[in-house]
Amino acid sequence: MKNRTLLAVGIGAIVLAFVGPALAGTFNDHGSVGWGPFDQMRSRHVGGHMGAMGRAMMGGVSGDFGSGDVPPSIEGAAEITVTLDDFSISPSMVVVMEGQATNITVVNNGSAPHDFTVPALGIRIEVAPGETVTAGIEAQAAGTYDTLCTIAGHESLGMVGGFVVESQA
User: Fold this and answer.
1) DSSP state, residue 127
2) Domain 53-166: what homologous superfamily?
3) For a tag site, which of 81, 148, 166, 168 has the least CB within 10 Å?
4) 63-101 pLDDT, tens per residue?
5) 116 pairs with which residues across the strands?
6) What's the Cα-to-Cα distance from 10 to each of 15, 17, 23, 54, 136, rounded to whole Å?
7) Which of 35, 71, 130 is CA-nearest to residue 43?
8) Which of 97, 81, 93, 104 is nearest to 161 (CA)?
9) Sheet containing 123-127: which strands, arranged edge to edge?
10) pTM for this one?
């Protein structure tokens, strides 16, 4: 009997560890029941300051979706599309040319929010499930940089890659 009680307590603790954070986030900013961070992200995207293009942030990494405006696409810039899924980035290696501006279109085909982040360059493009965001990225210095999705746990599930800025020389 004692072993069953310990087993039940252990299972209860595991369930609480996984379900607790989701239950804690079920109330939105207005005190009504929602889908926690997903509801907040949706309400900011639809009715917030982000406009029709979606979300992105340049110059740093933030943990709050919708925290920065999307840099507009750049006329005449190279075009790259990156697809995010549960849990991959494709292509895994993005290649751009040094000294050339690039428009990066990020498509989220996953069921969870994702972002395309290049920490060393201060690039973070946040994308809600089923959304597409295009951001203009100014010319970058030659080098090879890591990319990842900064949503908790997504990097360890395989959402990593590279961002190569090839030298013009």
Assistant:
1) E
2) Cupredoxins -  blue copper proteins (2.60.40.420)
3) 168
4) 445 445 678 999 999 999 999 999 999 999 999 999 999
5) 125
6) 9, 11, 19, 42, 50
7) 35
8) 93
9) 57-58, 123-127, 114-118, 143-148, 160-166, 93-97
10) 0.62
